Fold this sequence. Notes:
Layout: H1 6-17, H2 20-30, E1 39-42, E2 46-48, E3 54-56, E4 59-64, E5 71-79, H3 87-102, E6 106-112, H4 116-123, E7 126-127, E8 134-135, E9 138-140, H5 153-161, H6 170-182, H7 187-200, H8 203-212
Parallel strand pairs: 5-6, 6-9
Antiparallel strand pairs: 1-4, 2-3, 4-5, 7-8
Amino acid sequence: MPKLTVTHEAPLELIKQHPALAVDLLRAVTGTPFRAGLDVRLASTSLNTVTPVQYSADSVVVVSDPDTREALAAIIVEPQGRDEKTKKFSWPVYLASARKEIGCDSAYLIVACPDPAEAEGCRAMIPLGQPGLELWPIVIDPEHAPDGEDAGPYMLLFLACLPALEMENPAVAHRVLGAIRDTGASYAERKTLSTSTWGRASEASRWLLESMI
């Protein structure tokens, strides 16, 4: 198993603390409509099938109707640091297995990739053979990221960890520090968020952030 890095862990920690971030990302990038007030929670990342092989997605979020408890959609978030050839086989399995295990009609795959060049490889269409059946991964990279102008705290931290913000700018760095506070997370969770953000920042950005603290 490859060693987990800050690049890989930071988006997952944000989703873990605030699963609704997955919905916000999907809405921001694709315009997929989700009405307000839906129940959003983490689901098991194990997407087992009847085959001996076990597939484990990095983060799985379930969107449900709060009244009927009906599962409406599954959102899979995958931090991707490199264009692994195996993904063209595992990603379609994630979506199909999520629909089956969770029992929902819609399943979405969001790939967070810090390298724009690698993101292009991740963004390539995956043909599945069946006529009309193709997978187009939803890929977010620093050059194709949601606008952070009116972003909530977790969305802003996601953009900082991508990284898609100019944190060398004092005003931006101040917003990032404020976002960590505004999450309302526990002290331990805020410390984790700070570590993730610092880990993705440039040396100049880290110096600026530390001086502001």
